[in-house]
Amino acid sequence: MLFGAASTGKRVFTTSSSPGISLMQEAISYMAGAQLPVVIVNIMRGGPGLGGILPAQSDYFQSTKGGGHGDYRLLVLAPSSIQEAVDLMMLSFHLADKYRNPVMMIGDGMIGQMMEPVEFPDKYEEPELPPKTWAATGAKGRPAHIIKSLFLDPIALDKNSWILHEKYERMKKEEIRFELYNHSPKNEIMLIAYGTMARICQTAIDALKQEGISIGLFRPITLFPFPEKQIYKEATKENIRELLVVEMSTAQMFEDVERAVYGKKKVNFFGRTGGIVPPPEEVMEHVKMLLNKKSKDKKKA
Amino acid sequence: MEQDTKTIFSRPEALRDTVTHYCPGCTHGITHRIVAEVLDSLGVREKTLGVAPVGCSVFIYNYIDTDFLEAPHGRAPALATGFKRLRPDMVVFTYQGDGDLASIGMAEIIHAANRGEKITVIFINNAIYGMTGGQMAPTTISGQVTTTCPFGRDIAQTGYPIRMVELLSALGTPMYLERVTVNSPQQIIKTKRAIKKAFQYQLEGRCFSLVEVLSTCPTNWGLIPLEATKWLEDNMIPNYPLGCFKTPDDAESNHGTV
Ligand SMILES: Cc1ncc(C[n+]2csc(CCOP(=O)(O)OP(=O)(O)O)c2C)c(N)n1
Ligand code: SF4
Predict the structure, then answer these.
(1) DSSP-derived secondary structure for B52-100
(2) Looking at this predicted complex, what is its ipTM?
(3) What is the residue extent of each domain of chain B?
(4) Of A135, A206, B195, B212, which is the most exposed, with the fewest CB atoms less than 10 Å away?
């Protein structure tokens, strides 16, 4: 349905939660191949299979590494508050049109069901976009537009794949978004988390501060393109000794962080699944464990 | 005195002794019991495989004491086909709601029926998506209020309610199709007879069988159980006529003319 609706050139979106998004993977692959701008929201629940219905972040791989078949990427955004979801939603439609590519926003049951006051801008000033000269509007006085992903000629398919690839490379240059929280040369540990989990980490950081412990948070807002270089830059600062990735999954984004820091720093992981949203106290406990371990190491040395 | 005491009613062996998760007045429980009684009366509990749907009755495996598979949403007939083809000696049934069978699973049910899979389908039509909080289903009747059609189902926008047994009866393949309900003891007895027949056709290796059970969802209809039964009588039965729509005998006798 979304494929057809997007082909009109109008702005369109759909939403679902994990198993429904799995079913959409076929169409998502086709829409990426046909370069259709659409926005898809996945409010993630626990899996695999029917799993559960409570908040989770276990579709990170599915969203950022494909999910459907073929050589494509989605532009993936992860808000950590309702206000940010509102702001990123406007951006999502813009980015979908700018790149003619599906944009996926991922949240979880907390983001999906929480109520918070939000502000909508009085006026949304959108940078200008090229006209949608590709849309199917009736071939009156122009050659027919065929919105498709089939290229039987290997040379043509190769060309299309590299056109897509070029877009993804451009996204990596122009669209990376992230936020640093409580960054200071005193910090020995850097947390990395996104969405709801990042927000919980912020509470943990504030509470640790009260106890005289300072640590920082790196919060990716775009999961694809992933802020690899930016993570590398922060992680390799001299004061940072170890990283702690916190997710509501069994270490999915963790793999991208490990890749980003290139073995330069130790990357630790803490996560819960199944709809368990770890409270700030659990995050604090893990941070303290790391700090204790390190002070022991120091003594030994 | 002792020889005067006689057990005349007890829990069927195929029904587990446990607490129910179904809402008060929900008829899923009645139909579960009927299925269990039929499995017992045919003596097939130990060679039966059930396929659970997605929906309130996904937990059917907590109640009916046979082996079970838990299917993805709507795919129960596909799983049942795969299983039955490799184990034709076993009795295979699916138990599916209307959101599961008539919406997301429409393709699976039509093709399983048309291939004449020797499976039994118990189809629970309560005119709504129960588990997810009362959204419109393909079976929601015209004007019925649900969370996704708060002004009542508008057939100009969303089409007519789908009558599954009528739809399937248009297929040429011989099959058994009956629509029943569980609003009264008399209807419950008829339902049991239909469900037993559906399993017998499978045991005889004769045909695909599907029994549609008009059911209540008091919670999402927003009615107390008694009112829900009344609503079923006043609104569902006129839209979904009861009765047998097809047996393998009429289909076979028609075979040359189809
Ligand atoms: C692919 C997929 N889409 C959606 C869901 C969410 N879901 C769970 S139960 C359900 C509705 C089932 O309704 P119905 O078959 O009418 O059964 P009832 O709950 O009324 O017994 C839906 C849509 C899911 N689990 N998987
Ligand atoms: S929601 Fe409806 S179908 Fe589900 S158990 Fe309750 S009454 Fe039954």
Answers:
(1) E-SSGGGGGGGTB-SEEEEPSTT-HHHHHHHHHHH-TTSEEEEEEEHHI
(2) 0.77
(3) 28-253
(4) A206
